[in-house]
Amino acid sequence: MIVAYLQNGAADMARHLFDKMPDRDVASWNAMLSGYAQNGMPRDAIQLFRAMQISKYRPNEITLISTLSACSQLGCLSLGAWIHAYIIRSGDISFTFTLINSLIHMYAKCGRLDIAYDVFTGIGPRNLETWNTMLTSFAIHGRGMCALSLFCQMMKMGLMPDRITFLAILMACSHCGMVDHAYKCFDCMCRVYGLKPQAEYYGCLVDVLSRSGLLLEAMMVMEEMPFEPDISVWGALLGGCLTHRNYKLGIRAANHLLEREPYEESRYIALSNLYAMAGKLEEAVKVRKVMRDAGIKQTSGSSSIEVDGFIHEFLSGDRSHYQSMEIYSMVEIIDRSLELESGRSLSNKEDYKISRR
Predict the structure, then answer these.
(1) Do 274 and 255 touch, CB atoms closer than 8 A?
(2) Do the Cβ atoms of 255 and 287 come closer than 8 Å?
(3) Alpha carbon distance 89, 81 (integer Å)
(4) Cβ neighbours for 6, distance < 8 A, ≥ 6 positions apart
(5) Cβ contact 238:250 at 8 Å
(6) Residues 241, 210: contact at Cβ < 8 Å?
C-alpha cells in the first residue's frame, strides 16, 4: 500500500501509513526512501534515512542506493561520502554495479568529478552502465575531451556502445561546442552501429550547431529530420538564437514552442527578451501582458549549497536566510572587486596598445 500511494503521488498518505505501522522492517523503510527519492523529495528521503539510523535498522544495498539518489538531487556531498565510507567499513555490503554507478553519479552531481573518476577506475567491477555514467558525468561538466578519451578507451576494450553512450558523447560535444566531433559521432552511430537517431540525438546536434552560432545549419538539420522536431530541438535552437542575437529565427522558434507549451513561462520570457533585443519594446510588453492575463507566473530560480553538513537553499531575490545581510554584503564586495579588476584589465590593454604604437 505504501508503494501504491507513492506511485500515485500520494506521499503524505504513504507516510501516514508508514508512521502507523506497529512493526517495520528494512523493506518498509526502503519503500518510503525509494518513493521519496523517485518523487523528487530528496530532503524527506535524507530525513527518513537519519531516522532509520536512529532506529537502529541496518541499511542494505537498496537503502543506500535510494539515499545516494537523494544526495545527488540535493547536492548533499557529506552524507554521500559517509555512505561511501560506510560501505567500505561494513564488510557485508559489496560494491555491486548499481552501487558503484550510484556513487559515481552522486559525486559528479555534487561537483566532485575527481572522486567520481577515482570510484570509476578504482572500485569493483564495471559494466556498460558504469562507463555510460562516467561519460555522462564528463558531459554535464563540460569535459568534452575527457569524454571522448574515455570513449576511445571503451572502444579499445571491445565494449559495444549503446544509445546512452552516444547520447552522452553528443551531449559532451554540445556543451563544448565541438561541431566536427559531434558530426563524426552522429555518423558513427548511424553508419557503423546501425542505431537510428531519435529526437534527443538530433537535439544535441542542433544544440552544438546553435551554441556555435551555426543557426542556419541547425535549421537545415531540423528540416532534414525524418520526423517533426520536438520541444527539445526547438528549445536548443531558441537558446542559440538568444546567445547569438538572431531575433528573427528566435521569434519563430519561440512561437513554435508556445504553440506546444502555452503555459510554460520560460517561453514567454524568451519571446519577450527577443522582441526587446530587436528594439520592439511594445511587442515585448504585449507578451508580458499576455503572460500575466493567462495567470502564468515566473518561477523563481533556486540553488542550494552544503556547508558543514547543513544544506542551505536560496531562491532568486529571497532574503529570508538568517545570514542574508552578511551574504549580500559579501556579494557587494565581490562585485566591487570584479569591477576594479575589470577596470585594471582594460587599462592594461590600453597601455599595451600605446606601447605597441
Answers:
(1) no
(2) no
(3) 12
(4) 14, 31, 32, 34, 35, 36, 38, 39
(5) yes
(6) yes
118: three-class secondary structure by DSSP: helix
Residues in the chain: 357
Contact 55, 32 (CB under 8 A): no
Pick the closest to residue 147 from 102, 117, 127, 110 (CA basis). Answer: 117
Provide the 3-class DSSP secondary structure of residue 178: coil
**Which one, of 230, 233, 276, lies nearest residue 251 by Cα?**
276
Contact partners, residue 79, CB within 8 Å, separation at least 6: 46, 49, 67, 71
Please list the pLDDT of the chain residue by residue as tens digits (357 residues). Answer: 999 999 888 999 999 999 999 888 999 999 999 999 999 899 999 999 999 999 888 999 999 999 999 999 988 899 999 999 999 998 888 899 999 999 999 999 999 999 999 999 988 778 999 999 999 999 999 999 999 999 999 999 989 999 999 999 999 998 888 999 999 999 999 999 988 888 889 999 999 999 999 999 999 999 998 888 888 899 899 889 988 989 889 888 888 888 888 878 888 888 888 888 888 888 888 888 888 877 776 665 667 666 666 667 776 666 777 778 888 888 889 988 888 887 765 555 455 444 444
DSSP, collapsed to helix, strand or coil, labels residue 324 as helix
Task: Return the exposure string of 128-156: e unless at least 16 CB atoms fall within 10 Å of the residue's CB, then b.
Answer: ebbbbbbbbbbbebebbebbbebbeebee
What does the buried/exposed string (b/e) look like for 176-208 if buried means 16 or more CB atoms within 10 Å of the residue's CB? bbbbebbeebbebbeeeeebebeebbbbbbbbb
- Taking phi over 0 as left and psi of -120 to 50 as alpha, with beta for the rest, 137 belongs to alpha
Q: How far apart are CA 246 and CA 81, in angstroms?
A: 45
Euclidean distance between CA atoms 21 and 143, whole angstroms = 48
